[in-house]
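Quick start: read one record
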Amino acid sequence: MIAEGANDPAQAGEVQQAEEQLAAINAYLIKNTKLSGGKVVARHFESGSFRDQANLISKHICAVLRHVRAHDEELGRHLSNKLTLIFGSKNLYSGTGTTPWRVTGL
């Protein structure tokens, strides 16, 4: 318990509030995660078939590709090519090396 040894009533109140927040966060994590193969994973990711999980990953990668294309049209086109990024049981990048990579604005 964090509150042990807190002599100042105001400090004890802050410590009590922090403990309540930690307890709420812990309850949320316990409710929304589980152990799978010795690792903590989100419950919603583990539910459903392998195809559902692969579709979720593809959906998020495609959203990232839209953002890439908004900032760099050529790179976005390259990555959107069906032969460049391959989704399935293993997600693969098989680029031909024809697109020059430039990192700018960092």
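The chain has a mean pLDDT of 77.
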